Each structure stands twice: as structure tokens, then as C-alpha cells.
TrEMBL record:
InterPro entries: Cms1 (IPR032704), P-loop_NTPase (IPR027417). GO terms for cellular component: 90S preribosome; nucleus. It comes from Gossypium tomentosum. This is Protein CMSS1.
């Protein structure tokens, strides 16, 4: 049986490899990764259609599915989710962003908000998955998945924080991995990639059975 730590390392390596190969946002030296400049990166990702996709608030029946954001931010905590939304404040004046976390927010309230047009949403893995599971949060418009991998003061990130890490992998495997592989989804790793500025694939030797467990 493969160990939990090896499982986590292997998942992280696979995830990072896919993302580095197809990551949408090559954060420039000029813009850096200041949260308050986040909207500039997001605009670049959508090109000429950024205003139509990110700012319009009108729900167009048959064209724009209610509760299906174009940008979904996954963060390790409610506070970090809010902080990242502040960096996109000017994009959400006409179509308010939806906060998808459990702290101080009831799921019924979020379900109600998701009955309207949503362009940008931000939240934590467990609540995001729950809302997808009950079909309140749609993925038909999802174009950009922003994964916050900044580390906190204790050195933990979304990919390494116990429980949150496991919730993220569960969410990713069930709803995002196949879309990424097919090229239907673009992912932004927002934060310094582990092991330096460039991804270095580390060889992990596994038995065939363990590899099947990880890839299943």
C-alpha cells in the first residue's frame, strides 16, 4: 500500500508537471505576483474578450449558464480567498464575485447567489466541491482555474496543508484533471512553484499496483 506522504508527493509532481506544460499565466517580472495586480494577469488570460467574460452582469438565457463562473479561484482559507478577490475588485463591480467557503457563510446563501450570473468565484476546496456535487456551482463556462500556492507563515500551502491538501486533490481529481488533460481548462499556479522558479521532475519509483492507485 502506498504511503500518504508518497501519494501526496506523487500527486503534486503530476499536477505541477501538467500545469507547467500548459500554465496560462507566465507571471512577468514587471507585474510580479502582487495580489493587487492580479486582475491584470486575468485580463491577459482572456485577451480581447476580457470585458465580455469578466465584467458583464446580464444573465443571457441559453448562452450564459447561471452559477457557472469563467474564473474559479481555489485557496487554502477563507481569508486568502477574500484577499485574492480584492485583487480583482474592479472586474466585479457589475457582476459581483461569489465567495465559496464555509466560514460565516451558509451553503443555502451560496446556492441562492449561484442562481444568478457569476463571472468570478473564489473559495476553499471542500465548499467548492460540495457546491459542485449538489449542482449549484456549474463548470460549463469555466475557462481559468487559479490555484493559490503561496505559503503561509508556517510554510504550508494549498498543496501541503494537511486536510486542505487532501480536499484539494479530491476536488481536482473529480472535476478538473480530465478537463486539463483535454485542453478544455487553463490553470494558473499563483505563487512560487516548489523547488525554485523552474519545475524539476523528481523520479518516484512505485510498484505497478501503487501507480495504478495514484492514476485511478
Amino acid at each position: 500500500m502506498v504511503s500518504n506522504s508518497l501519494l501526496s508527493n506523487w500527486n503534486q509532481l503530476k499536477f505541477l508537471q501538467y500545469c507547467v506544460d500548459s500554465c496560462i499565466l507566465d507571471v512577468s517580472q514587471e507585474l510580479g505576483q502582487d495580489v493587487m495586480k492580479l486582475e491584470k494577469h486575468i485580463k491577459e488570460a482572456f485577451g480581447a474578450k476580457w470585458k465580455e467574460e469578466l465584467c458583464e452582469g446580464k444573465h443571457i438565457v441559453g448562452k450564459i449558464e447561471a452559477g457557472s463562473p469563467a474564473v474559479l479561484v481555489v485557496a487554502p482559507s477563507a481569508l486568502r480567498s477574500i484577499e485574492l478577490l480584492r485583487g480583482m475588485r474592479t472586474l466585479t463591480k457589475e457582476c459581483h464575485a461569489v465567495k465559496l467557503f464555509s466560514k460565516h457563510m451558509k451553503i443555502d446563501e451560496q446556492v441562492s447567489l449561484l442562481m444568478n450570473r457569476v463571472n468570478i468565484a473564489s473559495g476553499t476546496p471542500s465548499r467548492i466541491k460540495k457546491l459542485i456535487d449538489i449542482e449549484a456551482l456549474g463548470l460549463s463556462r469555466l475557462s481559468v482555474l487559479l490555484v493559490d500556492i503561496h505559503t503561509d507563515v508556517k510554510g504550508y500551502s494549498l498543496l501541503t496543508l494537511p486536510q486542505v491538501r487532501d480536499e484539494f486533490w479530491d476536488l481536482y481529481k473529480n472535476y478538473f484533471h480530465q478537463q486539463l488533460v483535454k485542453g478544455d481548462l487553463r490553470i494558473c499556479l499563483y505563487g512560487p512553484i516548489p523547488n525554485g522558479n523552474e519545475f524539476k521532475c523528481t523520479s518516484v519509483e512505485l510498484a505497478d499496483g501503487d501507480r495504478e492507485q495514484l492514476d485511478s
